[in-house]
Amino acid sequence: MTEQNTNKNRLNEQIQEEVNNHGKALEEMINKELRGNDKDVSYISKNDVEVMLNKHFRMVEQLIKKNIEQPVKRNVASR
């Protein structure tokens, strides 16, 4: 495997880890807020959840675009 492929694989792993971490944080927050109060009234509305999910997906898309556009750094030895 070339160094460039190794760097791409490492970058893909980092992206996947960030997406997973963000997804877990989002899920925890939604579960906490959807629990609601002692009268089973949620603290957030369906619209609030949709807004949060839209923000989440925009963040993920930006992260992916940023990492796709970022050139793979090569060291002097590989030139």
Structural overview:
The protein is mainly alpha-helical and 79 residues long. It has one domain (3-74). Helices cover 72% and strands 0% of the residues. It has helices spanning 3-35, 46-69. The longest helix is centred in the N-terminal third of the chain and has 33 residues, at 3-35.
Keywords:
single chain, mainly alpha, 0% strand, 72% helix, 79 residues, elongated
Report the biggest beta sheet as strand number plus sense, adding barrel if it closes: none
Overall geometry: elongated
Q: How many β strands by DSSP? A: 0
Topology pattern, helix = H, strand = E: HH
Helix content: over 70%
Helix-strand layout with pairing:
Blueprint: H1 3-35, H2 46-69
Helix pairs in contact: 1-2
Task: Summarize the structure in short.
The protein has helices at residues 3-35, 46-69. The protein is mainly α and 79 residues long. The chain has one domain (3-74).
